[in-house]
Amino acid sequence: MKGIGASAFSGDLHEHLQAFAALAARIEADPRGAYVAAAERAHLDPSVLRRRVRALSEWLGGDLLAGHGAKLRVTPRGREVADAALRVQRTVDELVARLDASRRALSVACTGTVTTELLAPALAAARARWPELAVTIRRAGVEQSHALLERREVGLAVVRAQAPPQGVARRRLLEDRLWAAIPAGDPLATRARLRTRDLARAPLIARGPRSATRRRVLEVLEPLGGRVQLEIEERGAALRYVALGLGVAFLSLVPGHALEVEGVVFKDVTARFPRSSFWGIWPEGRALSECERFLLDALAS
Predict the structure, then answer these.
(1) What is the edge-to-edge ordering of all strands in the sheet holding 134-139?
(2) pTM higher than 0.90
(3) pLDDT per position as a tens digit, 148-169
């Protein structure tokens, strides 16, 4: 008889081991009708179960069972194989459980606009599908998101950029809209058509130098004399300053989203500035989980 390792096993070794472990357990409980009972539990024909046990015995080079009918028993070698099969199955079950848990978890880095305007309804839809979904959200721009992905601190990022980020897998979700927030009493607020030169003359209220919206706006307005006169990090505070007549602010919003703030008039100026889109990005070569694909679909809809 040939010993184990003399040739590759012909067939699905895991399935054969599972079938034998189920049969061995049944024999030790009650050997009478063990093949029929074990085959039924494994959703197999008894003849298929017999062939699997025979194939294992031949490949392993020793009898796994002895006797017949009521005297059918598991040999010491068979007991060793059955125990090993159970250990393999526990390992497989633990792996599947870990993979399943990872598929039911989301770790996402997002720009502020995505966090405040897009993410909540998309996550609500995901949670309705997977009630046990665990979510971690990190607020980050393009560079920070890229670093978080490289360190595996998040599995997915949703960022706003004029061009697709390089060195990552990417999916374009939607184009943003750029709005000018103008004091209601300012002459610009009543103009049907805003000129870029007029926007450059207005005092600008903007976030810090790392702001993508600030860079996008100054790329156009700075050559025309535009400059930031009031720097502030929080959108709500910036809009309060606009309402007080201290300057004009620019906001990136998702399509269909507009703000209403007393004392502020909002005008869509997307066409006057470089285009910018929202992108889903993740490490190249990594397959998205079902939850991550669902989230990107929800953000893009």
Answers:
(1) 134-139, 105-110, 156-161, 277-282, 169-175
(2) no
(3) 998 889 999 999 888 878 889 9
